[in-house]
Each structure stands twice: as C-alpha cells, then as structure tokens.
Model the fold of this input.
Amino acid sequence: EVQLVESGGGLVLPGGSLRLSCAASGSNFDDYALGWFRQAPGKEREGIACISSSDGTPYYTHSVKGRFTISSDNTENTVYLQMNSLKPDDTAVYYCTASLWRTPCLVGAEYWGQGTQVTVSS
Done:
C-alpha cells in the first residue's frame, strides 16, 4: 500500500519560511512525480509544485514560483517543499501527492497524504 506522510507544517509570521517534508513508501516511485497540493478555507484544492522522479524536472504554479522550491531525494523516496516569503494567502492544508502522469502532476494525482496545516499570520 502506498503511503505518503507529511511533516513540517505549523504557524509562521508573514515573510517567514517553512520546509515541508513527505516520506513516500509502499512502491517503486521511479516513474512517479511527487508533489504538493494545498486547500485553503472555502477554496478548491490546487496543485502547487511537483517534481519528476525520473529526470528531476520541477513544475510550479505561478503564485508560488520564485518563493517555493521543490526538491527530492530519490534514494530515500522523500520530497521537500521549501517555502520562503510566506504570505497570509498561503494559509492552507498542504497535501503530499504521488502521480503516475495520468494527468499533469499539478492537475491531479493517484495518491494523497493526510495533509499538514500551514498558517501564516501576525
């Protein structure tokens, strides 16, 4: 069974930084993209960033490009999201995802973690 476990969420001041981690297990992830979605209160879930396990190509949604960086350690099946210059609009539940490219990895995913709360507030 595929499992995705997030960690690193919490409360941070505007302008601050957090790093989220996700440990993936239960499959060979060589052909996957690993990434992150988020859902803010009253809004639809949206893809934020994802990265190809085969060639390392990263993808970002426009609103986080230049502020967030996705990276992965393929030997440990772990994906990270470094979030800098955080804004109150970044407040959301963040979900780790694993995608087999049935859709673009910022659009959908086959497997989901349980989510971790990120709150940006003064």
In short: The first strand starts at residue 3 and ends at 7. The mean pLDDT is 96. The chain is about 0% helix and 50% strand. Residues 8 and 20 are 5 Å apart (CA to CA).
